[in-house]
Design goal:
heterodimer; A: 299 residues; mainly alpha; 13 helices; disordered N terminus; B: 289 residues; two-stranded antiparallel ribbon; 12 helices; globular
């Protein structure tokens, strides 16, 4: 049975299905098929998560049973107690949190102030300097890592929070991102404040920053997730177990039992490490998605 | 900014100084140092020795380097087309008027926010030849799965598949933003003129999405040359060097064998590759505009 179909790719936001001749059925066949395809793909995407959760709830003996069960028949939290007791899990968790919060706060201050300077101040060499900032965006981290490691070690920051946090406080991308945002807001309020005799610093903190909420939120989320998930740098700069961050600790879990990795324990650690990211994502979805999408459209 | 004279310089230093110092100390400085180091031999214990272009010469005659480059390109040729096509398909799918599209968007995006280490560990267990879900699902439909990460022929495809799974949501979100930027009126006009769905896709969606497609292509190409976390956790370059890639080699040479000069030369080769790719895409965008 043929129906008059709505035009392709009409926006979801305003209910594209309603365009064109009204459908006789509420959900035409095409919508049902597309929904089922999206659902099948979506389930495929979350299967690895379900597999990790299922494994983490299995007793060690059930790991080697065939065929493997997605939902364990005798669920137990023993793998979780193993992770938490045999491993300084809370300490590691706290390290990740501290490092992520500190470097994010640093980035917010450093990037918003430098972004503002590039957006509003006039000084000789400004555009050339900004080009240098843009150019560093294409420098892969692997290119700087060897000298950076040597430099940070010489500063005495190896195996310290400083070594984990301070290099992460600076981001050319963050400066670029904040500059673009400042350029998009009108100058009038700042000019009014200046006429009233406020200093540049006071104008920035009292007038400008309160208007930058959305940009700061996006930068916060991107910076926090970047730090929380960062692997290579902490792997090199930290070898003291007390200072390990979550990704490093996780990667050592698989070597905890030589010869035979206890996958229920590894998966329990993975689940515990991933839950906070997913919770933050669910609450901050809008900023995460806008940040990623925005970097695409503007970049 | 109305301050004058020294006060003006002070305000500028306050706003720009920290960022500038950080950029010089942690990016520009190390980058130039790495260029300098690439002309030396240095094991961190004895003083660095200037050797001219010897590291680059050695690199060209090093079979391991070409093997690494070949593996990196294999990754790229598998990963880029897959992540682009699947990302675009999912974006078009979720942009059409289906119920729950918001929930689906979250499902596809969750792997993007998960740490690579967690993802790599879960997939390592999924790929377990005997007890893993992948091979058991395959045997349920009568296919005998390979040993995946333990098989030199299948380790790279396994890493590619995992990377595509993780990054699909990223590409999807960027393409969705691009799709939603296309004015609806174009489709309405086309539909009034009697255009079919396929015609609209071909003559409205694809041309107007071109800048977004080019952006995603450049991001995924550049990302392909810098693959590291997943390789380190899943295979550590093995089995039999089947997944040795550029960044993994740089890290190994610098931090396992203490060959700072050779690692720096490798890293500059990586930088030059990325530089060329970036310039090509920049020119492409200017030419289009």
């Amino acid at each position: 049975m043929r129906q008059e179909l709505p035009p392709v790719s009409a926006g979801t936001l305003t209910g594209g299905a309603r365009i064109g001749r009204p459908n006789r059925r509420r959900f035409p066949l095409r919508t049902v098929v597309l929904t089922l395809v999206a659902l099948a793909g979506g389930l495929l995407m979350i299967t690895p998560f379900l597999w990790a959760i299922g494994t983490s709830l299995k007793p060690s003996g059930a790991l080697l049973s065939l065929p493997p069960q997605l939902v364990p028949s005798e669920p137990t939290v023993s793998a979780y107690t193993t992770v938490i007791t045999r491993f300084p899990f809370l300490r590691v968790f706290g390290n990740s949190l501290l490092v992520a919060i500190a470097s994010t706060l640093g980035q917010l201050v450093v990037c918003s102030m430098s972004g503002y300077a590039f957006a509003r101040f006039r000084f000789p060499g400004r555009d050339a300097l900004f080009t240098v900032y843009l150019a560093t965006l294409m420098v892969p981290f692997a290119v700087v890592i060897t000298p950076l490691f040597i430099f940070v070690t010489r500063l005495g920051w190896a195996n310290s929070y400083a070594g984990l946090i301070i290099p992460g406080m600076f981001s050319a991308f963050g400066t670029f991102f904040m500059r673009q945002f400042f350029l998009s807001i009108p100058r009038e309020l700042e000019e009014a404040a200046t006429i009233d005799g406020a200093s540049t610093l006071a104008t920035f903190f009292r007038v400008v920053l309160p208007m930058t909420g959305p940009a700061l939120a996006t930068l916060t989320v991107l910076s926090f997730m970047g730090s929380w998930n960062s692997f290579l740098w902490p792997l090199l700069i930290i070898n003291d177990r007390a200072l390990m961050t979550l990704p490093i600790a996780l990667s050592t879990l698989q070597g905890l039992y030589p010869g035979q990795t206890q996958w229920n324990v590894v998966m329990a650690g993975t689940v515990l490490a991933t839950i906070p990211t997913i919770i933050v994502f669910l609450f901050a979805q809008r900023w995460v998605i806008e940040g990623v999408a925005g970097s695409g459209v503007k970049g | 900014m109305y301050e004058r004279g020294w006060r003006r310089a002070g305000v500028l230093a306050l706003f720009l100084g920290p960022s500038l110092i950080g950029l010089l100390a942690f990016t520009v400085g190390p980058m130039l140092t790495s260029l300098g180091l690439s002309f030396t031999n240095w094991d961190l214990l004895t003083p660095a020795k200037f050797v001219g272009g010897a590291n680059y010469q050695r690199l060209i005659s090093d079979a391991e380097f070409w093997h690494t480059l070949k593996n990196t390109l294999t990754f790229l040729l598998g990963y880029v087309p897959l992540v682009m096509c699947i990302g675009l398909l999912v974006a078009v799918l979720l942009n059409s008027a289906i119920p729950l599209s918001h929930a689906f968007r979250v499902m596809y995006f969750v792997p993007v926010v998960t740490s690579w280490v967690a993802v790599a560990l879960v997939w390592k267990w999924l790929y377990n030849p005997v007890y893993g879900l992948v091979n058991n699902a395959l045997s349920a439909i009568g296919v005998a799965g390979p040993a995946w990460l333990f098989d030199p022929n299948w380790a790279m495809p396994a890493v590619i598949l995992t990377s595509v799974w993780k990054d699909t949501g990223f590409v999807m979100i960027i393409m969705l933003a691009g799709l939603q930027g296309i004015p609806r009126e174009y489709y309405e006009a086309a539909s009034i003129d009697g255009a079919t769905r396929a015609q609209s896709l071909w003559s409205i969606t694809i041309p107007l999405l071109a800048p977004t497609l080019v952006f995603c292509l450049s991001i995924s190409l550049i990302g392909s040359f810098q693959v590291f976390d997943q390789v380190y956790v899943m295979t550590d370059g093995g089995p039999a060097g089947a997944t040795m890639v550029l960044v993994e080699r740089i890290v190994s040479h610098a931090f396992s064998y203490s060959r700072m000069g050779y690692a720096s030369a490798l890293s500059w080769v990586l930088f030059l590759i990325i530089f060329v790719v970036t310039v090509v895409f920049y020119q492409l965008r200017r030419w289009r505009a």
